[in-house]
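About this split. The held-out portion is used to measure sequence recovery: a designer receives only the structure tokens and must propose an amino acid at every position. Recovery is the fraction of positions where the proposal matches the reference. Here is one held-out target exactly as it appears in the evaluation file.
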């Protein structure tokens, strides 16, 4: 939080957040709203019960187009890009040659030879520094970064589809989950990705930067609640979704994180193929698990996880934690030794010198029925 506000980037919605009384904080080099006046719990409940919206314009949006686009993306992403059908999206990893996770990302096949890659804001610079040298030697592919010239708003919750249907003359509901499509909205052609980071139905809507405020205000008038980074973090944790920098890093691989199903490594000349193949065939020494606190205490990233039978023995570390208003419990994610990762295992969390009991549980903590 030491960055000066003058040095922070601002999304096209920055002034809207300020005018709404949001508490602004530095995040990934951007000045972003962490919460609004109603508070984080109210924002979480609005997404679970109705609809909430998040300014995610800080996330990187890069298009790759041309006859060589599929081949190039297949060399840098852990997804079977040639098999991705038009209009489909795929969660994947950007891994280094050792199989460490540089970032997790979404890739969409927008048309026959055009793909959209959406990356995390905090890793945007690192991602491009890693991708660009490889792109420079690629054939028959163009790369265009549209992060600054566009805005992206995530609309999430059980009423999200209904509300966006009303704004797109019914086009939104025609886009199925993990699909991407185009729709007329506010007199412009918007890109609608039916994905999100909350465990709810919803879309991530990409529009020209100049239309961002109009879209935000129209959604607000339609009953969509303004939400910030704080509630987004609670929602993603309830849904058992990882956060890069906490639960994923270059020191972790997709298999020990429990996301090996998104680590396709059969692609021709894929940079991480050998490393991921090795991890897929080897038993991990540790595992990312979810746990609920049994005793009183909130788990936070960096806290030690101890053995119940031998409290002096460290068996892991918390990577994410919070109190969940949806399941009414303190919950967390953390890496533990493989032999301590079984569901139902009791563990201890060292909360400021207090050894608080917790239990490893099945993920996600919350799933929409």
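Reference sequence for scoring:
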């Amino acid at each position: 939080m030491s960055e000066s506000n003058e040095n922070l980037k601002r999304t096209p919605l920055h002034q809207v957040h300020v005018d709404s009384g949001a508490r602004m904080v530095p995040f990934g080099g951007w000045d972003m709203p962490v919460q609004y006046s109603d508070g984080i719990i109210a924002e979480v409940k609005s997404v679970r019960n109705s609809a909430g919206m998040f300014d995610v314009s800080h996330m990187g949006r890069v298009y790759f187009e041309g006859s060589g686009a599929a081949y190039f993306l297949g060399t840098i992403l852990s997804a079977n890009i040639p098999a991705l059908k038009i209009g489909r999206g795929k969660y994947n990893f950007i891994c280094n040659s050792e199989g460490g996770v540089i970032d997790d990302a979404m890739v969409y096949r927008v048309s026959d030879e055009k793909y959209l890659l959406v990356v995390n804001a905090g890793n945007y610079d690192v991602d491009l520094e890693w991708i660009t040298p490889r792109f420079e030697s690629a054939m028959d592919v163009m790369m265009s970064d549209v992060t600054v010239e566009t805005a992206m708003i995530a609309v999430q919750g059980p009423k999200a589809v209904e509300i966006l249907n009303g704004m797109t003359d019914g086009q939104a509901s025609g886009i199925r989950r993990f699909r991407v499509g185009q729709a007329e909205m506010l007199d412009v052609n918007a890109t609608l990705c039916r994905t999100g980071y909350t465990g709810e139905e919803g879309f991530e809507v990409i529009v020209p930067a100049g239309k961002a405020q109009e879209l935000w205000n129209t959604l607000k008038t339609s009953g969509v609640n303004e939400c910030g980074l704080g509630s987004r973090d609670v929602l993603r944790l309830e849904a058992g979704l990882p956060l890069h920098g906490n639960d994923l890093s270059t020191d972790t691989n997709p298999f020990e994180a429990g996301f090996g199903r998104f680590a396709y490594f059969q692609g021709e000349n894929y940079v991480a193929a050998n490393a991921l193949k090795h991890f897929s065939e080897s038993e991990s020494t540790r595992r990312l698990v979810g746990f609920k606190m049994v005793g009183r205490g909130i788990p936070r990233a960096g806290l030690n996880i101890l053995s119940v039978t031998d409290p002096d023995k460290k068996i892991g570390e918390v990577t994410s934690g919070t109190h969940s208003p949806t399941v009414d419990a303190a919950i967390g994610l953390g890496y533990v030794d493989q032999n301590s990762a079984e569901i139902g295992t009791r563990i201890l969390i060292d909360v400021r010198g207090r050894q608080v009991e917790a239990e490893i549980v099945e993920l996600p903590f919350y799933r929409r029925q």
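Annotator remark: The chain has eight helices and 19 strands.
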